[in-house]
Amino acid sequence: MIDFVVVGGGFAGVSATAYLASHGSVVLLEMESSLAYHTSGRSAAMLVENYGSAGSRPLVRLARSFLSDPPKGAVDAPLLSERAVMWVADQNGLEDLEQKATMGRANGADNELIGRDEVLARMPAMRSDWVAGGLFEPSGADIDVAALHQAFVRIARGHGANLVTNSPVSSIARHGSKWLVEGGGRTWETSAVVNAAGAWGDVIAEMAGVQPIGLQPYRRTAFMVPGSVESAHWPMVVETHENWYLRPDGVQFLCSLAEEVPSEPTDPRPRMEDVALAIERINAATSLGIRSVNSQWTGLRTFAPDRDLVIGEDPTAPGFHWLVGLGGIGVQTSPAYGSLLASLAVGAPLSDSMSHAGVDPERTSPARFR
Ligand SMILES: Cc1cc2nc3c(=O)[nH]c(=O)nc-3n(C[C@H](O)[C@H](O)[C@H](O)COP(=O)(O)OP(=O)(O)OC[C@H]3O[C@@H](n4cnc5c(N)ncnc54)[C@H](O)[C@@H]3O)c2cc1C
C-alpha cells in the first residue's frame, strides 16, 4: 500500500512528489522513457512576475524564495540569473502597457514605464520607427530549468520516493476508500492519486471515473536563432499584446510567436508557418535581420476554462487530487504549487510564508468547477 501515486513526471509531478515524500510513501509514474519529456522540457525558462492568472500571482512570489535560496544539497549552482523583462509597444500598444504597469504594481511587481529612448538604450536592436514605449521590469530572471526539475527529483528521492519512467498509467479504479492504479506493469494500491498529467489531465480523470475539468492544451513553438556576445545581457523583450517575444540565451536568442493554437493532448511538432510569422514580426520591430533558425520545438500550455491553476482534492472524488492547468507559468510557480498541494493533501495548515504571500487555496481549488 502506497500513500500517494503521482501521475506525470513534468514539473507538476516532481514538485508534488518532493513535497509529499516527507509525509509518506510516494510512487511517481511517467509514461515516457524520461521525465520532463513533454511541456516541462520545452519552456522558455523565464520567471516573469507580472504574468499569469490572479490565483497564480501569490504563488510566483512564494516560489521566488525557493528559487533564490534552494534547500541545501538540492542544486549545485544557482537556479536564477538576472534577466530583466521589457514589454514593448508600438503606438497601438501604449494603453496596454499602462494597464500592465498598473496590474503589475497592484501585485507587488516592481516596474517602470519608459519612453522610446530608454527602450533603445536597453535593447539597441529595437527599431526606433517601430517602438513607441516600454515597461521595464527588473525582477525577471532566467531559470535553470533542468537543475530546478532535478532539484525536485533529488529532494523526492532523498525522502525515499520511487520515480518510475516507461510506466503509462492505463487504469485507475476506486476500491472502497482506496484507489487501484495500473502502471509500469503492476497495480498500485493507494489512498491518494495526484493527477499531474499536464495536457492529459482530463484523460486521467475520465480513466478514474472523475468528471473532467474542461482542460484545453494550446500549442506554442519556440526556436533559437543566432545572437551575439553583446546581446547576451539584453533584457527579455515581449511585445505587449504577446504577438512575439525574444530572450537572449548565451550567444543565441530564444524566440516565439507566443501563439495559442488549440490542440489535443499529443507530442506536437513545430509548424513552419508559426516560425516564419514570428521571424517576420521580430524583423519588423528590430534590426536583428533573422534569417536562420538553429533549433525549434513545440510544447502544450494547458489551461482550465477560467485560466487559473487547479490544485487540490476533487470534492466529488475523495483521494483524487488535481495539479493541472499550469498554462504558461508552471516552471516559475513550481515550488509553490507542490508545497500547496502537499499541505492540502495531508490536511496541514498553510505555512506562514503562504499566508504572507497571499495564497488563497479556494481560488485554485477544483471545487470551483463542481
Ligand atoms: C514554448 C513554451 C514556453 C514556456 N515558457 C515558460 C516560462 O518561461 N516560464 C514558466 O514558468 N512556464 C513556461 N511554460 C509553461 C510550462 O512549461 C508548463 O506550465 C509546465 O511545464 C507544465 O508542467 P506539467 O508537469 O503540468 O506538464 P508536462 O510537463 O507536460 O508533464 C505531464 C506529464 O504527464 C505524463 N503523462 C501523461 N499521461 C500519462 C499517463 N497516462 N501515465 C503516465 N504519465 C503520463 C506526460 O508524459 C508528461 O511527462 C512554457 C511552455 C511552453 C510550451
What does this structure look like?
The protein is α+β, with helices and mostly antiparallel strands. Helices cover 26% and strands 28% of the residues. It contains 9 helices and 20 strands. The chain has helices at 11-20, 57-68, 94-106, 116-122, 145-158, 201-207, 272-285, 334-346, 352-357, and strands at residues 2-7, 26-29, 46-47, 80-82, 85-89, 112-115, 133-137, 141-143, 162-164, 169-175, 178-183, 186-195, 216-226, 236-239, 245-249, 252-256, 261-262, 295-303, 310-313, 320-324. The strands form 3 sheets. Strands 5, 6, 7, 13, 14, 15, 16, 17 and 18 form a 9-stranded mixed β-sheet that branches. Strands 1, 2, 9, 10, 11, 12, 19 and 20 form an 8-stranded mixed β-sheet that branches. α1 (11-20) runs parallel beside α5 (145-158), α1 packs across α8 (334-346) and α2 (57-68) packs across α8. The longest helix is centred in the middle third of the chain and has 14 residues, at 145-158. It is globular, with a radius of gyration of 21 Å. The two termini are 30 Å apart. The model has no long low-confidence stretch (mean pLDDT 97). The site of flavin-adenine dinucleotide (FAD) has 40 residues, from α1, β13 and β18. The site of flavin-adenine dinucleotide has 40 residues, from α1, β13 and β18.
- Bound ligands: flavin-adenine dinucleotide
Summarize the amount of helix as a percent range: 25-40%
What structural class do the secondary elements suggest?
Answer: alpha+beta
Shape: globular
Average pLDDT score: 97
Largest pleated sheet = 9 strands, mixed
Distance between the termini: 30 Å
What is the overall number of helices?
9
Unreliably modeled segments:
none
Strand tally: 20
Oligomer: single chain
Rg, please?
21 Å
Strand content: 25-35%
Order of helices and strands: EHEEHEEHEHEEHEEEEHEEEEEHEEEHH
